[in-house]
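Notebook, p. 212. Picked up where the previous page left off. The plan for this session was modest: take the two constructs that came back from the sequencing core last week, fold each one, and keep the raw output in the notebook itself so nobody has to go hunting through shared drives later. Recording the first one now, exactly as returned: residue sequence, then the structure token string.
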Amino acid sequence: MVPGCCLAPAGFSKKVFEVENSIFGSTEGQAKFLIKIDDNTLMPNKKQIFNKYTYGLNYLGYGLTEKGELIRSYIENGRSFTLTLFLKKSVSEEELKFVKQSLQALGLFGGAGARSRRGFGSLSLVSLRIENNEEWNEPCNVEELQNIIREFLNIVSKSSDLPPYTAFSTKTQIFIKKGNSDPIALLNEIGMELLRYRSYGRASKDKHMLPWNEKAEQNFTDDHDLMLDFLNGKKINRIPRRVVFGLPHNYFFSGKGKVSIEPHSKGQKRRASPLFIHIHKLSDGSYVAVLSLIPSQFLPSNVNVEIKTGRQTTIIPPQVDYNVISIFLERPTLKAEVVWPNE
């Protein structure tokens, strides 16, 4: 991602693509830099961090476990590495700015590897040097991190239009949730809160319960009922509200069947979540979560949403409401503070 230029109106998409290819390379040419990674401490391991009681981790890390056991190697939290970019002489000052902003965006909001939008693989930028000049001061507390994020977004978040792809704009929302010295506990807490917000719960006598035996809030009963109606053969004319969290989005009804929801496109069967969870380590040793809602055009203009069971299929336009995610970020029980927009 090139944050400095990916915020232009939709008509500039081709130009953004050309600039990214020019800097980062494509099938038609090499990138304008070489990469070296010093990673003496990055030994992968399979130490179990999931168990039957890490309800939030299990939810956010869907696909990383099998029967409750981690099935992928990972780099343990707290490790560090140095990434060195050797730039070609042809790199312009404008291109250097884009590379710098991309690294800053990765170190403030992103991560690497599986389930990176759900907090796993978060990368915190500690230092950024160009030649021998230090270009980055690692935040030592929440206030400094907030100021750094605001300074960054003041530079790149200029477009008021909904971007045609995931990109910062004036519609971007950033929240910070404070933690302590345990990043796994912080991520688990966020996962449990997201599950509280989204889950219908499992039937238990006359109630619906969450996995830790707490009564489900059932904030999306209308979604549940809509999909049950469809499973029973009724016609529907809208998609569930929770689709905004990403696709595919499935419903399982005990003893009745399954409803699958995905993009109606041969070449695209997924839509990544616009909600980014990033666990950030501060220089004082504590961790915070940076929660980013980055709205964009949900699907390409020629792609609708396909809802299907084993017996029927319907195609519906992808009308989503990003306020569904905003409401989650503003929940008092999440205890997250607004960073952006800075009003």
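Okay, moving on. Second construct, recorded in the same format:
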Amino acid sequence: MKEAKQKKNIQKVNELLAELYDLLDHQAAKAAVQNAYNKINASDKLSVQYAEVHEAIEALKREFSRLSLAKKTKFTRAQEEIVSQLTVFTRRSFQKGFEGLGMVGVWFG
């Protein structure tokens, strides 16, 4: 059951990445999406793919931020929405535990 859920979650991330790739017109942005996809799907092992998702999406967002700050591309609302969906989905489905809860007092105290 756990493996089926992991496979479904990875498939959802891959679908969102493919949708984002199709909407982009800037080559560096497309390359960042392709790199994220390649990082996630480099291994045939589902557990390895699952472990790579969070870092791959974070690297994608860093590259998009770099491109945006350098004014090399402007992302459309639809593209930003897909990145938001990726972020929310990976945080919910691929979180590694409760390591952030230790900082709640610092953040909100």
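Notes on construct two before I forget. Residues 5 and 86 are 17 Å apart (CA to CA).
Flagging for discussion at group meeting.
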